[in-house]
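User: Teach me something about this protein's shape.
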Amino acid sequence: MKKAFKVVVNGNQYDVEIEEVAGQTGATPTTTRAAPAPAPKPAPTAAPASLTPAPTSGGSGEGTVTAQMPGTIVDIDVNVGDRVTRGQKLLVLEAMKMENEIVAPRDGTVSEIPMSAGALVNAGDVLVVLS
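Assistant: First, the predicted structure itself:
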């Protein structure tokens, strides 16, 4: 005689059949187990919508916008000498197959752009210097 059970262990469901063996003394019942169901795939994590610019230390009024993660500069929307306002898009950085708009942290003038389009950057690299 076979009996079928559904067993849940650590969130995984197993279909188990147990067969009763008659006439055997001292023997343990035979158990047949199905392979565990594959674990669900974790949800992918999203990259931030934009990278946060970090101001430089010191009271000179200058500030730098740095990369918060490694990536590739796809497009630069400003030139040296341009006046920018807080929140204005400076460039686009592709990281983890997502395009992130890098915006100005404050009003100012672009005094330096040490990177060019297509450049690979690491976390902490200076992308734009504002004065």
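Now, about its shape. The first strand starts at residue 2 and ends at 9. The chain has two domains: 2-33, 63-130. If you'd like, I can walk through any region in more detail.
User: That's plenty for now, thanks!
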